[in-house]
């Protein structure tokens, strides 16, 4: 009977709520996290599944998760990845395994309390597609807070989507948005931004934030930098266009400078122009600008290629009224 117990729990139907948690070397937090999560989820009175995704941990995390999955069948699912793929990839793996109508993501380090989950669920039930959260009284080192406030401002400027805090992973998503995210083929994803670009109704709530319970942050400076680039490139190809704009400005400056030189030369005579040195500068500017412009033009093509390769869905159908789907059930195609 226990041959196929993983992934497909014995419960009859699909759970209402899925909790997805990426885990990377978190052995010191798992015991408390699991206890608190189970308590919170059972109290909601909904059917639920807690999906832990072990992201190639080198400590005892995977072992512990296996054991929990056996101890609480139908409530805890353990997904073990075979090496470290990064937090966002791990969350995607969890999405793929999840079946709930509502999906909530959470970090394993107890920085955001699991007790805030019911608030997120309540918002999802009101009909929001994405429920973000921002960290009230954030407890991270100053440098981290400074960097993320810069990044948050940048994201807001680029996307125009008002979200106070993109770094907080305690978030809720509707099934529609999760399925849409799964149908995106891109490798480098920044989930909160991706979700927002696919959602129709978003909101956010404040959640308390505490210091990391145990262990240390899994992000060193290089991982953070690479994450910021994931965020930027997953959002916009505008930086590529900046090259063309820059090139245009430099070239134009060169031309204007050349004209100015011509006028001054006519006014003050040949010896004023330092024997053509200034003229060389103006030519240089024109050519440098042309190079940037050429790069930017290449960038425009590359930008389009990267958009195409991502293969994000062109549209997402929320519901069809009176169509085929209602008569022939089990038809959930999201992809265009
Ligand atoms: N994490 C992961 N894979 C990684 C890095 C982190 O699954 O390569 C998980 C980690 O276990 C935690 C969450 O992602 O549950 C957030 O990591 P962390 O708390 O270290 O990030 P910070 O709070 O410092 O931004
Ligand atoms: Mg953390």
Task: Describe this entry's structure for a reader.
Helix content is 50%, strand content 12%. With 336 residues, it is of the alpha/beta class. The protein folds into two domains: 17-236 and 313-334, Spore Coat Polysaccharide Biosynthesis Protein SpsA, Chain A (Alpha-Beta Complex), CATH 3.90.550.10; 238-310. Strands 3-2-1-4-6-5-7 form a seven-stranded mixed sheet, sandwiched between helices. Bound molecules: uridine-5'-diphosphate and magnesium ion (MG). Uridine-5'-diphosphate binds at residues 22-24, 26, 55, 84, 86-87, 90, 107-109, 111, 217-219.
Secondary-structure blueprint of this entry?
Layout (H helix, E strand, L loop, with lengths): L16 E7 L3 H18 L3 E7 L6 H11 L4 E5 L6 H11 L4 E4 L11 H9 L4 E7 L5 H18 L11 E4 H8 L8 H8 L3 E7 L12 H15 L2 H31 L8 H34 L13 H4 L9
Parallel strand pairs: 1-2, 1-4, 2-3, 5-7
Antiparallel strand pairs: 4-6, 5-6
The chain binds uridine-5'-diphosphate and magnesium ion (MG).
The site of magnesium ion (MG) has 5 residues, from loops.
The third-level CATH topology of the largest domain is Spore Coat Polysaccharide Biosynthesis Protein SpsA, Chain A
Kindly report the name of the CATH homologous superfamily of the largest domain.
Spore Coat Polysaccharide Biosynthesis Protein SpsA, Chain A
Strand content: 5-15%
Distance between the termini: 40 Å
């Amino acid at each position: 009977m226990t041959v196929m117990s993983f992934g497909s729990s014995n419960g009859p139907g699909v759970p209402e709520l899925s909790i997805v948690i990426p885990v990377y070397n978190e052995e010191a937090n798992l015991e408390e996290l699991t206890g608190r999560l189970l308590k919170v989820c059972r109290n909601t009175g909904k059917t639920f599944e807690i999906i832990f995704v072990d992201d190639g941990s080198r400590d005892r995390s995977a072992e512990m998760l296996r054991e929990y999955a056996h101890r609480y069948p139908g409530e805890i699912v353990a997904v073990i990845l075979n090496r470290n793929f990064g937090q966002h990839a791990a969350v995607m793996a969890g999405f793929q395994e999840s079946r709930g109508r509502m999906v909530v993501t959470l970090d394993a380090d107890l920085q955001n309390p699991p007790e805030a989950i019911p608030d997120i669920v309540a918002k999802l039930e009101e009909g929001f597609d994405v429920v973000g959260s921002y960290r009230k009284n954030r407890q991270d080192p100053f440098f981290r807070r400074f960097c993320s406030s810069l990044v948050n401002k940048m994201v807001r400027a680029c996307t125009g989507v008002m979200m106070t805090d993109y770094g907080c992973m305690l978030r809720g998503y509707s099934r529609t948005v999760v399925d849409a995210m799964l149908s995106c083929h891109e490798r480098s994803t920044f989930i909160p931004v991706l979700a927002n670009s696919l959602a129709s109704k978003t909101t956010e709530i404040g959640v308390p934030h505490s210091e990391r319970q145990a262990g240390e942050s899994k992000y060193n400076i290089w991982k953070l930098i690479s994450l910021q680039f994931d965020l930027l490139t997953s959002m916009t190809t505008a930086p590529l266009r900046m090259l063309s704009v820059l090139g245009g400005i430099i070239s134009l400056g060169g031309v204007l400078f050349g004209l100015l030189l011509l006028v001054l030369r006519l006014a003050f005579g040949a010896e004023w122009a330092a024997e053509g040195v200034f003229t060389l500068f103006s030519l240089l500017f024109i050519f440098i600008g042309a190079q940037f412009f050429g790069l930017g033009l290449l960038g425009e093509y590359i930008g389009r290629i990267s958009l195409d390769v991502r293969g994000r869905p062109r549209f997402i159908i929320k519901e069809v009224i009176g169509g085929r789907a209602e008569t022939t059930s089990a038809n959930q195609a999201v992809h265009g």
